[in-house]
């Protein structure tokens, strides 16, 4: 189990490192392959979330982050991060920068502060109690 977690973490890091930045259309990993997504008409941070997070935290049986949260919360709260209403920006940033369980850490050279702020804004857009 430990080797599987380590391999997953390494695979995620490799995927992030391999993505090209600065293109007009951003490449978005989907089911461990890249696809193009348009942010037109979407809330702030949608494209960044799709680009950096959805390959592990998206919808589907092959998403390890979603599967882990589903097992942890057993339906008490949504396993899909973009469906949650209880996330706080500081907690999101803490987990992204420091990792948690098998989720790897992401340096500022991998996910910029601006992209992380956009992701936090997207994931907390429905949270009525955020500061």
Structure explained in plain terms:
The chain is mainly α and 131 residues long. It has a single domain, classed as Orthogonal Bundle (Cytochrome Bc1 Complex, Chain D, domain 2). It is built from six helices and two strands, in the order H-E-E-H-H-H-H-H. A two-stranded antiparallel sheet has the order 1-2. A hairpin with a 2-residue loop joins strand 1 and strand 2. Residues 11-35 have low confidence and may be disordered.
Topology of this protein?
Blueprint: H1 2-18, E1 26-30, E2 33-37, H2 46-52, H3 54-57, H4 64-73, H5 89-98, H6 113-123
Antiparallel strand pairs: 1-2
Name the CATH superfamily classification: Cytochrome c-like domain
What is the element string, with H for helices and E for strands?
HEEHHHHH
Question: How many structural domains can be distinguished in the coordinates?
Answer: 1
CATH architecture descriptor text? Orthogonal Bundle
Assembly annotation: single chain
Distance between the termini: 38 Å
Strand content: 5-15%
Structural class: mainly alpha
Q: Using only CA atoms, what is the Rg?
A: 14 Å
Mean pLDDT over the full residue set: 78
The amount of helix comes to 40-55%
Strand order in space, largest sheet: 1-2
Question: Biggest β-sheet, characterized?
Answer: 2 strands, antiparallel
Taken from the alpha-carbon principal axes, the silhouette is globular
CATH topology: Cytochrome Bc1 Complex, Chain D, domain 2
CATH class: Mainly Alpha
> Helical segment tally?
6
Number of strands: 2
């Amino acid at each position: 189990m430990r080797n599987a977690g380590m391999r997953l973490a390494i695979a995620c890091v490799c995927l992030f490192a391999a993505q090209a930045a600065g293109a007009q259309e951003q490449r978005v990993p989907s089911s461990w392959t890249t696809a193009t997504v348009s942010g037109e008409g979407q809330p702030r941070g949608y494209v960044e979330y799709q680009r950096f997070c959805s390959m592990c935290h998206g919808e589907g049986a092959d998403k390890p982050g979603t599967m882990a949260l589903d097992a942890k919360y057993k339906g008490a709260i949504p396993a899909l991060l973009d469906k949650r209403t209880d996330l706080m920006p500081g907690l999101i940033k803490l987990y992204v920068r420091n990792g948690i369980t098998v989720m790897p850490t992401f340096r500022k050279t991998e996910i910029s502060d601006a992209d992380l702020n956009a992701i936090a804004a997207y994931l907390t857009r429905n949270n009525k109690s955020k500061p």
